[in-house]
Amino acid sequence: MAQKTVLIVYAHQSVGSFNEAACDVAVKELEKQGYRVIVSDLYAMNFKASTTQDDIIGDLKKPELFQYGEETMHAWQEERLSGDIVIEQQKVKEAELIIFQFPLYWFSVPAIMKGWMDRVLTQGFAFSLKKMYNNGIFKDKKAMLSFTTGATQTMFRPDGINGDINVTLWPLQNGTLHFCGFQVFAPQIFWAPAHCPPAVRTAMLDGWRARLQGLLEEKPLTFAPCELFDLSFEGGFMLSAKVKKKQESQPYGLTTGHHLGKPLPPDNQISAEASGVKN
Amino acid sequence: MAQKTVLIVYAHQSVGSFNEAACDVAVKELEKQGYRVIVSDLYAMNFKASTTQDDIIGDLKKPELFQYGEETMHAWQEERLSGDIVIEQQKVKEAELIIFQFPLYWFSVPAIMKGWMDRVLTQGFAFSLKKMYNNGIFKDKKAMLSFTTGATQTMFRPDGINGDINVTLWPLQNGTLHFCGFQVFAPQIFWAPAHCPPAVRTAMLDGWRARLQGLLEEKPLTFAPCELFDLSFEGGFMLSAKVKKKQESQPYGLTTGHHLGKPLPPDNQISAEASGVKN
After folding, report:
1. Closest Cα of chain B to A33: distance in Å?
2. Which residue, A162, A191, B80, B222, has most beta carbons within 10 Å?
């Protein structure tokens, strides 16, 4: 059997940063477990972030109106995507787990990492209109976010100044990772390490190291499976009437995004043990 | 009195695209109203998206550990930010309103636009730990998102396959724009224009043109004002006990992110008329 592989997509500029330390902990711990670990160090690679015509080799299908999504889908089918994208896609194919390690910038990933998502997760390769969410192309793979914040944990509570971190993580975890099928592990959040004394930073890394020991056996976060929806244009890609009826008696919505006008299931995007739809 | 200015930060690769048409409509309509309109055409400018050391001219304060946020804050204070950032910051200073025009990529802005946010909204220039949200540096300015989707509108309902669009918009509208103080106008959402016949696309643009006629007089979206929170490290930057008590009897949370374990105020991030905290 081939050696199992983990890909770490890593976005920090600096040697000696806390993010680098978190990345190193993951590399060492996973290698100790026998995994092959590949790190895509985006700044070191000077990874191109912008989605441009250069991502396609050869002629465009529709040169009179360049549409990035369409053109890259065709280019993927015909093996005409630019080399740097092909290399990353090969890593994704080989990986059983992808860890995104980054500092939170503006409630999201840094632009260079957004560029990785925009450019590597090509239609056809990473999703199709038939294959998404729990039926997605990468449904047998795992992915997770591991990030540092500038803000403290209480600032990201539902009653904290920044609002609920579960809401903030939805576009990344549901809209990107789970959209492509990934089973998403609970995020590893390092709260405000820059404001913490060295002993606390060390303890944070020790906690991460300990978690990594059982990471691959963790239960993923709960999302709403496609089977609950009427996935047709006539049905509007909405929850089926039967499911909707059944959910009425539930105290919470299904997920952070599928709240159905009810209270959000607590910590749906940060804890696998949280309440939510039963699959 | 100086001519009033609108800045459009525009991210689409193609002449002839629907996004370009939406941008053109805004330029023409706002110029007709007497505004000076500046367009930052990010792809045409080949705008650098990644946050690197090149954004700082001269010596680093702490070369042994490069910290982008800290270093750019110092560089801003000492007028040592790279020229392309300075030019964009000057446009922001002059603008009364900023419109972000883009296609939604992975439930968010394209990487090149995220790069604009990461690089232009420098600490000191765009926010400080004392000046944020409704007390933010740009509190006398307006900003808004105007974007196209691949998905239909029903897919982004709370019971649609992608979940509530209000949740998806929170990191951009609260976490980025309002964080810097901007009053945020309701987003202009062009639902799936690529799947619409020409007449519908034309009608969408006509609707945008009509909205632009009264845009500057619109009421902005509702966010939770800082005054409701105890903004101290001891207080955890959380809702004050008095406000929390008072909110208990309310049927909805304050905002999409500040839901307080209650149902989200409907359409808090897409409609200014929606329910929510009364300021």
Report:
1. 31
2. A162
